[in-house]
Design goal:
By secondary structure, the protein is of the alpha+beta class. It folds into 3 domains: 128 residues, no CATH class; 114 residues, no CATH class; 100 residues. The protein has 14 helices and 11 strands. It has a 6-stranded antiparallel beta barrel with strand order 2-3-5-4-6-7. A hairpin with a 4-residue loop joins strand 10 and strand 11. Helix 10 crosses helix 14. The radius of gyration is 46 Å and the shape is elongated. The two termini are 52 Å apart.
């Protein structure tokens, strides 16, 4: 939504002036005018306190979780079997290696090859490391031929060892198991379902049917508190149960509850609703100013205070000083504004003088004739301007409230002061 400047300013007032409960007057005519400044209106729901059934959370087993858990158990069993097979495979490979390394006679160490060959045959591995009439008999002739030449036999066994090592089986179940475990982490063991417990009731605020707009509000309202949806998602809608918190602090983005001070009706909406009402504190403030001899008028949404010296915008600092009965602060700020404008009206001559002084300084510097008499004159004139400048910078109402003070000024005077600031800083660089 487009924010009206003055209402944004009031939010700062509300946070500080807590001793007063702000009341807002709503009427359809005023609301219609204010709505022209906005692209959309706040949604409004009447709410009322009712006896409602409470909710309870019921835990149910998550079927997807348990399905994955069973798959993991099966895969763990497969993985263990695969690991045992790999262990046995490598153990029988080592038997062949031990045979090749051994210096024993063939008859004493051939049992190593027999055990290895039995394992390979049993598990359908086509490696030839041993054969006789009972074991691997179809390859007996080829085995005896290899064995007849000891050197050739060792060479052939080493070749087979390399082949066996290269074909060591992998445990594919490990990767599959890791993937299943990752998927399991994404699923909770239990799913919690909200059920209505009709045997247990409580008093709660319930959202009623949405109203047709801000124009429905008519009368004087105050902030009752804030509200939170009991559910953790979605937008406010009819039938929702809300938790109302009695709290007088708020911002425009929060969900708030307002109350008609006469009918005591409650409405759920957002903090932006107050932009559409008339703050009765401001009405009282204007009356207070008028009674003290100050005339006021409106400029858009700004309240203008007319003093004998100049016109001021009702800013945050002025508002707070009035609340503290320091009405004299208005004239002090008006005097400061006049002094500021008088000073900046001379900006051209001030800038010109400083610029010319700096040009002479640069010329003398390049010519090598920066004598003490000129340097003293340069310093005195720059410091004299700094003294005038600091007096303006520290004017009452400006020193500690720059943002507020600038609302009383024109863009021209603000830019003139910035130009003087820039020129003075450049001149002061020569003093170092």
């Amino acid at each position: 939504m487009i924010k009206v400047k003055f209402f944004c300013l009031l939010l700062c007032f509300f946070q500080i002036v807590k001793s007063q409960t702000p009341h807002y007057s709503f009427n359809p005519e005023h609301t219609k005018e204010i709505a022209k400044h906005y692209s959309a209106e706040p949604i409004i729901f009447p709410i009322e306190e009712r006896l409602v059934a409470t909710e309870k959370q019921v835990a149910q087993e998550n079927p997807e979780y348990h399905k994955l858990l069973n798959e993991i158990k099966t895969k763990q069993k497969d993985s263990l079997e695969n690991q045992l097979m790999i262990f046995e495979y490598n153990r029988h490979l080592q038997l062949v290696k031990d045979f090749v390394k051994s210096e024993e006679r063939y008859k004493k160490k051939k049992n190593l090859l027999i055990k290895a060959q039995e394992f390979f045959l049993k598990n359908n591995y086509n490696y030839l490391v041993y054969a006789d009439d009972e074991i691997n008999s179809s390859k007996k002739s080829r085995f005896n031929s290899l064995k007849s030449n000891e050197t050739q036999f060792k060479y052939e066994l080493k070749r087979i060892i390399s082949q066996i090592s290269l074909n060591t089986p992998k445990n594919s179940s490990i990767n599959e198991l890791n993937e299943l475990r990752k998927r399991l982490k994404k699923h909770p063991e239990f799913i919690y379902k909200t059920d209505i417990d009709s045997t247990n009731t409580k008093n709660a605020f319930v959202i009623l049917k949405e109203l047709s707009g801000v124009k429905y509000l008519n009368g004087i309202f105050e902030l009752y508190g804030k509200y939170e949806l009991i559910k953790k998602y979605g937008y406010t809608q009819e039938g929702d149960i809300v938790n109302v918190i009695e709290d007088q602090s708020y911002n425009s983005r929060q969900n708030v509850v307002i109350q008609n001070i006469e009918s005591k009706e409650l409405f759920a909406t957002t903090g932006e609703i107050f932009d559409y009402g008339i703050d009765l504190r401001l009405v009282n403030l204007e009356k207070n100013l008028n009674d003290r001899g100050y005339k006021t008028s409106k400029n858009g949404e700004d309240i203008i205070i007319h003093t004998s010296q100049t016109d001021l915008v009702l800013t945050r600092d002025i508002y707070l000083q009035i609340q503290n009965n320091n009405i004299e602060y208005i004239d002090k700020v008006a005097n400061s504004v006049n002094q500021f404008n008088l000073y900046t009206s001379k900006s051209e001559s001030i800038i010109s003088h400083l610029s010319d002084l700096r040009k002479i300084y640069n010329s003398r510097y390049l010519g090598g004739n920066l004598d003490n008499e000129f340097l003293k004159k340069y310093r005195n004139e720059v410091l004299a301007e700094r003294k005038k400048y600091d007096k303006i910078r520290n004017l009452e109402g400006r020193k500690d409230n720059l943002e507020n003070f600038q609302q009383h000024l024109t863009y021209k005077s603000i830019n003139q002061f910035l130009a003087i600031t820039n020129e003075l800083l450049k001149s002061e660089e020569k003093l170092n």
